């Protein structure tokens, strides 16, 4: 009896700080290899991101004949903004002679977090966004960047904290957050704090959220207010997306990102606020790397064929 060849699926999560690529088999489901590489944000540096991506893929495909690669699924940070998904897909297809699909890293997380089922995904890290999928249709709420949105993110928390300090200063008062923030920013007055905040990059400013979280743990009432109001704003975006779903609405919401993973107050406020409007929602954390999403890709493609 002739033995069928093994088919391998390759999933790649290209994030802003690093790339994770994984090779999987499906019968049985088994992780064959996992490789980590450099940054993969095509908006910040397209050529470097593609170089890092191919470096990871070279290692994953080295021992696999192209005929046994069933799919390369790549989720890339910033790909929707850059508008270069087709270019990346063509480059990878030509290099590895395998079926290649390129989507955003958020959609990759949505696919992985819900195991290919319909529902929503909330990401809150340095930035934030709410994604949803129902019957092959994608929905998005928020995620409009640190200037216009990103509610519930680390940057949003930092910005709200400094704005609270400024409001108190304008009222001739001193906020509970003034001294800790000035110390963290290594400045001596509020005006200098504003100047430094504008001069620093987004990632550095977002790190101030860690200070606010620590102060909240110490029962600083203003720090608690900042975290709660930020989480409530993000929760409202979840409710907005849910209201856009058609009947029957999916009930699962996956949670991802450093803020939701490490800040219990933000996470609990988010889930409690959403449950006040939609008590039937079930939340779950993403516990595997999103490269694992390649296992579930067939569910999405099958739905598209049948729709």
Automatic annotation (TrEMBL):
Keywords: Kinase, Transferase. GO terms for molecular function: kinase activity. Residues 10-277 form the ATPase BadF/BadG/BcrA/BcrD type domain. This is N-acetylglucosamine kinase.
């Amino acid at each position: 009896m002739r033995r069928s060849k093994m088919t391998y699926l390759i999933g790649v999560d290209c994030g802003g700080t690093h790339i994770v690529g994984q090779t999987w088999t499906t019968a049985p489901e088994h992780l064959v290899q996992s490789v980590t590489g450099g940054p993969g944000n095509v908006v910040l540096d397209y050529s470097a991101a593609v170089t890092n991506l191919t470096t990871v893929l070279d290692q994953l495909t080295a021992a696999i004949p192209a005929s046994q690669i069933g799919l390369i699924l790549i989720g890339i940070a910033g790909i929707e903004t850059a508008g270069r998904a087709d270019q990346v897909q063509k480059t990878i297809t030509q290099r590895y002679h395998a079926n290649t699909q390129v989507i955003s890293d958020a959609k990759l997380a949505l696919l992985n977090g819900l195991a290919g089922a319909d529902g929503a995904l909330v990401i809150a890290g340095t930035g934030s966004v709410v994604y949803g999928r129902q019957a092959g249709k994608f929905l998005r709420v928020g995620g409009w960047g640190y200037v216009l949105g990103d509610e519930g993110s680390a940057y949003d928390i930092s910005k709200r904290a400094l704005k609270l300090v400024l409001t108190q200063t304008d009222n001739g008062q001193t906020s509970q957050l003034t001294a800790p923030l000035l110390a963290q920013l290594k400045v001596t007055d509020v005006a200098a704090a504003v100047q430094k905040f504008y001069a620093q990059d987004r990632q550095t400013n977002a790190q101030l959220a860690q200070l606010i979280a620590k102060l909240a743990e110490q029962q600083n009432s203003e720090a608690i207010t900042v975290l709660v109001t930020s989480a409530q704003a993000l929760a409202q975006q979840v409710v907005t997306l849910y209201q856009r779903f058609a009947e029957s609405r999916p009930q699962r919401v996956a949670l991802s990102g450093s803020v939701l993973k490490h800040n219990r107050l933000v996470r609990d406020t988010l889930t409690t606020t959403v449950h006040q409007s939609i008590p039937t929602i079930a939340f779950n954390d993403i516990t595997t790397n999103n490269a694992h999403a390649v296992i579930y890709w067939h569910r999405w493609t099958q739905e598209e064929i049948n729709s």
